[in-house]
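Quick start: what a row looks like.
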Amino acid sequence: MFQTFEVTSSPETGPARLAALRAELVAQKVDGFIVPRADRFQGEYVAPCDDRLAWLTGFTGSAGFACVLADVAGVFIDGRYRMQVRSQVADVFSPVHWPDVQLADWLKDQSGVIRLAFDPWLHTMAQIEALEKALHGTDVVLVPMQNLVDAIWSDRPAPPLAPFNDYSDDMAGETSQSKRARLADELRDAGQAAALITSPDSVAWLLNIRGTDIARNPVPHAMALLQDNGNVALFCETSQAADLRLDNGVTVVAAGQMLGSLVAMTAPIRLDHDRTPFAIHQALAHDKTVAGQDPCVLPKARKTDAEIKGAREAHLRDGAAMVRFLAWLDEEAPKGALTEIDVVTALEGFRRDTNALRDISFETICGAGPHGAIVHYRVNEDTNRPVSLGELLLVDSGGQYLDGTTDITRTIAIGNVGETERSCYTRVLQGMIAICRVRFPYLKSGGVTGSDLDALARYPLWLAGLDYDHGTGHGVGAYLSVHEGPQGLSRRAKTPLEVGMILSNEPGYYREGAFGIRIENLIVVTAADAIAGGDARDMLDFETLTFVPLDRRLIDVTLLSGGEHAWIDRYHSDTLHKIGPRVDGAALDWLTAACAPL
């Protein structure tokens, strides 16, 4: 099993650890310390040795931070985690609804805060710049220093040191040399001699390598300096790169020598303020840097034809595993013996049976009944709940395959459920369909963004006075991170959508203490076919990658428009056509029935 179910944190440990941290504040003569869920690479997921927020507070969500002062300790969490945090942290911590409440505003309401410490490797340049600006005019002074949590974490795990591995040029659709040359041209055109790349997924994409330093995300713990001649210095633990087939344009440099190498540069280096640790900014003179986006970000988001071809195949393989799982679930769940852990274990088994699974793409979310309302719920031995008749079961999961990364959510009726659940499910489904059906203009500048489309998915829910507190969709990598920017479908997604970008489409609805609903397919931006009589302008639309039946038992057809009804029947027909040849026996019988017209 990739997924485990042991309890990794406990509220009981929080008070003593908080007290130890406060003693360290006194010893270091500071009034507070910021504890982000971050490492020096600024990714969403961190290795166990960097999971300081969970160790200190007990909160295990994928986003958030704490600010510890002498008399109050705030844990800042967004809408996905407002229920989860209450069950995971002791009452010595105070949950703070972020981003509704910003750190600077919260600090202004506290008394006695003057020297606020932070680890400069765990905050980006942009984060510190924004915080300093928001605190201007107050008495709060930001103090960079070595991490105070590390000073009290006596049994901190060792850092990961597994070897990196090569990734096929055929699957990537472009060689590393070609990528580097193309980006080097852009640097020269911008008058820049080099760009520092601090995000592991960007390094992996640029060099066509992968790693295992972060569970569920096949990325290497590495940074890189791309020069305007296409050469690259790869900064990492050198033993990890020993087996890579790197060409002569790539030099491996020990991670500990990175700052010295950067300081020795005579020409300015491009730094992405949204991704570069503040510590690097500290080490370099101001005339040694120029602000600019990580040059890999947009090219990585625009998938090659080979990557899209791989994604299609990965989703068909994964779809067949999901169909076998759902057929098994429909057979076993009514017997009343299943628990959430049983469901997660079975699903991973069906994916493993493909003989192609490299990892799961994130910890499977499997919430029965009220647990489904916890947006990023992770079942463990303490929370494991029976899958009971008359309830909804929300299962959000994915796989990492060499040819693609998958992410799919299905909400399933276990026996007969109420009309409220069916109505809410149908409205969520209508929102997903709206994104699938949308067409939008392609503009070379100032194009349509995810923030422009987000409301389409919410509109059916809004009509009933309902909503959800997460984005509608995130970008997805190609055998890389399951959450990949900058593309997205949310109010905050301001990057214009372009051909080749893969996104999730996952509206939801959550009723605390009762049920949760989410339906998710992955989609890819494509050039739309022209419509007779339409304007002569280029348009974009979405191709669906995920083909797994929806739960027809939960669809209230009286709420559907004719177009929505037709879309569902067409989607099920396509699903039967694409997945049918990949399954047999009871799974094929189940699929045929599940894909029948409404």
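That is the whole record. The chain has a mean pLDDT of 96. The longest strand covers residues 391-397.
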